[in-house]
Structures are given as C-alpha cells and as structure tokens.
Specification:
The protein is of the alpha/beta class. Strand 4, helix 3 and strand 5 form a beta-alpha-beta unit. 30% of the residues are buried. The termini are far apart. Helices cover 51% and strands 17% of the residues.
C-alpha cells in the first residue's frame, strides 16, 4: 500500500511558504503506525508525508519520491529492516538520504548494528511528536545543505573551467576588433553573460539559505547541548567520530570561500557585459590586495600541489581601475607561474607577491604616483628569445591543447588600457618576475 498525504495547510504536497519542502517517506507494514506518524506530521506545513507498506516496493518508491528523510521499521514480514537499509545505501539515488530507524527494540547492540550499516538515527516506537519533528527537520535540512554544498562545489569546478573559456573569448574579442567584427562578437558575449548569470544567480541565492540553515542547525545543537549537557554514549561517540567542532569551523570557511568564488564569477560576467557595452563601463576605486587575495583563493586547488605563496603588501591607496580586468591579469600571470613550477621536479616551489606605492618624485620617468605589483616565481626562467615574443598574441611554449597563447597578450592590453606598464624579468635557471605598474589617476 502506497499513500501520499499532504499537510492541511498545503495543496498537493507543495508548501505554500518560502521554506524548502521536506519530504518524509515512512516504510512500515503497520497501518496504525502510519496513522500515528501522519497525525504527528500533519500540522507541519513544510513537511510532505508519504507512506509505503510494501517493503519490496520501498526502494523504487524512494527513488521516485527523492525524500529528504526515510522513516523505516526494523522488523517487517518479508524483508529484514537491516537488509533494506543496505539496499538504500547501495543505490546512488538513495545512498545519502537520511534514514531514521523506528523499532520497539531498544537493545544497544541492535542500535550499534543499525548505525554501522548506515542508519542516521534510531528512535523507539512511537517517539514523542516534538522529538520526531525535530529530528525529521534536522536530518532533512542537513541533507539538503549537503546537497547544496555539493552543488556549489561542482558549480565552482565548472566555473573555473568556464573562466578559462571566458578568458579565451575575451581575448578573441580583442583580436577581432582589428578585423571590424566587434559588434557581432559583442552581442554574442552579452548573450553568453546573460546565460551564465542565470545559474550563478541561482547558486548565489541558495548560498544565502545555506548560511541561514547552517546557523539554525548550530543553534539547535547548542540548545540540545544546553538542555542535555551530558549526551548518552551513542551521541558522544558519534560527535567524536565526525569531529563536530571541526565541521562547524570548516563548513563556515567553506561557505565563505564559495561566496567569494561565486562573486568572482559575477565580476567576470559583469566585465563581459561591460566590454560589449562600452557606454556602461566605468572605473571604480578598488582595493588591489583584495583582488589578489580573491584570485589566490580561486587558485587554491592548484597552489595546494606543493607551492608556497608569500605576500609582502605595502600601504596602497584605492586604485581607480576596472577591478575585474585587473583580476584577470593576476589570474593569467599566477596561472603561468603555477604551470612553470609544476613542470619542475624540485620540491621547493615558491611564488612571491610584492606591492608598493611609488611616488612620482622617486622616479623621474613617471609623471604621476604609481602602484607597483611584482609577481615572482622560482621556476626554470625563460631565455631571451622567448621573452622577446612573450606578449605576442597566440605565442605559447605550452604543448598543443594546453595553451592558446592569448593570456599574456590580454594582460598587456588590459594594463595599457589602464595607462600602465607590464614587463617581465627572467633568465634561465633564475625564475621569472612580472612587474605591473599602474598610475594613480583621480
């Protein structure tokens, strides 16, 4: 017997509020248990309730419904509850769905066996209404948060790939300006930016809810700890197993880095839009150090491959610039430095970033005050013949398929648009240093 029941203050199982819908699937051969659980959950507007009395059909029912939590009986006529849990954990569609075991058996050994095969919680029939609702919400929202976090990580990985594609498109547009194709390509970039902006907006909106839910969960756990300062052995063991204190800190850091990554994508999309609509482009006072730091954060997965980054930041004023374009320069130069270092077998791989404010009076060749950014690596360096072609469009020393030869050409064009200067200092075996000089213009 399969049954779907919606709370009285919603229609067809769809919540009328703005909170996410939680979907509960009860698997139990006793209709009296079904009625009791329904009576407990019916008043909750954010919970959609489903019932399955046939254990043999439970797996397909769960796959079809995509529940946020499964309530499952331990003992059923035809199927052992433990075996059913193993079936759920073996299927990709249900392997991560929280399972709350319901049983009249309060034996610690049985509970331990249930947790060992993947049960998330264990309640003795029939639990208190408040406790059941609290646990359903806790496990459901934790599951939804994990799903959203996974989606954010996947989106971030896709965004990094997309960013490289956008870099190539951006540079291609610059080249086509000289062949009178800017108008048509500009329309194409604006369309791409629009298409990218929709999923990015979805991700960004979800992050707001994730932050809120994470805070709610922490507050709920804190409340439990205050009311029950001495948890039972099972809870204490689980807290130690998952390292709950580390999860609290690391998840907060992960959410923060995800926010920065999404904001970086938004900046790139905005840069593309502005590039295709010059009348909307404007310089804004920007913090150079924030741009460098955000770029390093995006490249963190590459830097973790044994590269040490040191920063020596000077006191810099806000620079009137196109921040997203400068970030693109930092991204290209740092990516090249990382590529050069990872090609080497040496264990000591370093990138040093230094910034400084250069008053005009200290440099007779400059009519205005300048900001100077130096990015240096201890890689293999470059011979003179390579340096002579370094900023030429489509010139690359990388293998076919690994580089377009447009990155540094784009960087030089961006710096020229800022009335600045970009040059490289290098020698074989001596590493490479890129020096960016940008005038401070009111």
């Amino acid at each position: 017997m399969n049954l779907t029941l919606s709370p009285a203050n919603s229609q067809d199982g769809v919540s009328t509020g703005s909170v996410p819908q939680l979907t509960v699937l009860l698997i139990d051969d006793q209709t009296t248990v079904n009625q009791a659980v329904w009576d407990m959950l019916a008043p909750e507007a954010d919970i959609q309730y489903h019932y399955c009395a046939d254990a043999d059909a439970a797996l397909q029912r769960a796959i079809a419904l995509s529940p946020t939590v499964i309530l499952q009986d331990l003992i059923m006529p035809d199927v052992d509850g433990m075996s059913l849990v193993k079936q759920f954990r073996a299927q990709p569609e249900t392997c991560d769905v929280p399972i709350i075991m319901l049983s009249i058996n309060d034996d610690p050994a049985t509970k331990a066996e249930a947790f060992a095969i993947g049960v998330n919680d264990y309640l003795v029939k029939l639990p208190d209404q408040i406790e059941l609702i609290a646990r359903v919400r806790y496990h459901s929202r934790a599951y939804l948060n994990r799903q959203a976090h996974t989606m954010a990580l996947v989106a971030q990985a896709h965004a990094q790939e997309l960013e490289q594609t956008l870099e190539e498109l951006h540079r291609t547009q610059t080249q086509l300006i000289q062949t009178e194709k800017l108008s048509s390509l500009g329309q194409m970039l604006a369309g791409i930016a629009h298409e990218i902006n929709n999923p990015v907006g979805f991700i960004f909106g979800n992050l707001t809810y994730i932050d809120s839910y994470f805070e709610d969960i922490l507050n709920l756990v804190k409340l439990y700890q205050e009311i029950y300062p001495e948890p039972n052995h099972t809870i204490q063991t689980y807290l130690e197993k998952v390292d709950f204190e580390f999860i609290k800190e690391d998840l907060a850091n992960t959410l923060q880095s995800t926010h920065i990554g999404v904001e970086r994508i938004v900046q790139i999309v905005l840069s593309l839009r502005n590039f295709s609509r010059h009348d909307h482009t404007e310089m804004k006072p920007s913090n150079i150090h924030e741009g460098i730091d955000s770029t390093l954060l995006i490249l963190g997965h590459r830097l973790k491959q044994g590269i040490e980054v040191t920063k020596d930041y000077g006191e810099l004023p806000l620079l009137n610039c196109y921040q997203a374009q400068l970030n693109q320069v930092f991204m290209n130069i740092l990516n090249n430095a990382i590529d050069a270092l990872l090609e080497q077998a040496q264990l000591d791989k370093r990138i040093a970033i230094q910034t400084a404010f250069i008053p005009a009076k200290l440099n007779p060749d400059q009519a205005t005050d300048h900001v100077e950014i130096r990015i240096r690596d201890n890689g293999p360096g470059m011979p003179q013949e390579v340096q002579a072609k370094l900023f030429n469009a489509f010139f690359t020393t990388k293998p076919v398929g690994q580089g377009t030869g447009l990155g540094l050409s784009i960087c030089q064009q961006i710096i020229k648009n800022h009335q600045g200067n970009l040059h490289a200092v290098s020698a074989p075996g001596q590493g490479t240093e890129f020096v960016i000089q940008l005038p401070i213009i009111e």
